[in-house]
Design a protein that fits this description.
single chain, mainly alpha, about 35% helix, elongated, binds zinc ion
């Protein structure tokens, strides 16, 4: 049975920050692994 495109995207795992485990919004152009909070910490 083929999955519909909608079902396919729903089954994708949520992106999770490896630093704090925070779930992140999927950002197509983002290549960063960490969430904004951890990134700003590292920037200091
Ligand atoms: Zn984080």
């Amino acid at each position: 049975m083929l999955m519909s495109p909608v079902e396919f995207f729903r089954t994708l795992p949520k992106k999770e920050c490896p630093e704090c485990g925070e779930h992140m919004e999927e950002q197509a152009e983002s290549y960063m692994m960490e969430c904004d909070r951890c990134l700003s910490k590292k920037g200091e």
